Amino acid sequence: KQLQKLISMGDLDLAFLTLTDKDRSDDLYEPIYDEELFLVIPAGHPLAGTRPEDGEDYATMDIRRLEYEPFVLMDRRSTMSTMLNRIFAEAGFSPQVLFETGNNHTIISMIRANMCCGILPYYYVKDLDQDFCCFHLPSRPTWQFTASYKKGRYLSRPARSFIDLMKEQWGDKITATQ
Description:
Elements: H1 2-9, E1 15-19, E2 28-42, E3 59-60, E4 70-74, H2 80-91, E5 96-101, H3 104-112, E6 118-121, H4 122-125, E7 132-136, E8 142-149, H5 157-170
Parallel strand pairs: 3-7, 4-5
Antiparallel strand pairs: 1-8, 2-6, 2-7, 2-8
């Protein structure tokens, strides 16, 4: 959100952001890729044995099954908080928050220590080991990784090339939204 504010004020030429539609300003956004958010629990959790349906990499779990479990979540100032608020509101409960952090690796460490559950973007889920069990949420929430720059402001050729390079390198490679 701080990068987005700097773009809007004209203090930053280009930023790469993860956003929901609600978080967007009047600036310009070019999508790079869409990324799904996953429910992650310790491998030793009683629900960890839930298996995916045929043809699926991950099982789907209704988060309401974890209503009384502790969660470590991203900080309220993060863009992720918008997504988390929506996920829990749709589920009809407020999570038992152990604490909030600004670092996904902290969430991973806490889940590995069997202390909590969490919600993480696919980028962090795709390489998790056997200490974790990851699930699609029924609504398959996603956010969009975008390039952002100020509307009506000149975008240099190198900045344009950088955006195109990001699209070429990352577009559709880590989405896991099939």
